Amino acid sequence: MDAEEARQTDAKLRRMGIPWVVAPVDPEAPAGKWGVYDSAEPSTRKPITPDVLGDVMAKLRATRPESSGKRQAPTRGFVLLSKQD
After folding, report:
1. pLDDT band with cut points at 50, 70 and 90 for residue 67
2. What is the three-class DSSP state of 19?
3. Is-above-0.70 flag for pTM?
4. What are the helix and strand counts (H, E) for the chain?
5. How far apart (Å, rounded) are the C-alpha atoms in residues 30 and 11?
6. In this structure, is the dihedral angle defined by the CA atoms of residues 3, 25, 35 and 14, taken in order, positive or negative?
7. Distance from first CA to last CA of the chain, Å, rounded?
8. Cα dihedral 14, 19, 24, 30 sign
9. CA angle 24, 7, 32 (to 5 degrees)
10. Which helix (H) or strand (E) holds 49?
């Protein structure tokens, strides 16, 4: 995932109360790929597998009202009457 996807993932994990860390795969290259880890310390951290992360995100989506995949925006409309002769 890139830095923007990492930011979004981190926000979702925080809302869920999950203490995982979203950080660059290479701490020296924050513009590169990012991952999810069990701790912040680069020398001892272990990556969270994509399967586990996917399961957690699926559970998050299942608890939200727009989980059907369709987001419905507010709608507004006008009634146009035909011109009568």
Report:
1. very low
2. coil
3. no
4. 2, 2
5. 18
6. negative
7. 63
8. positive
9. 30
10. none
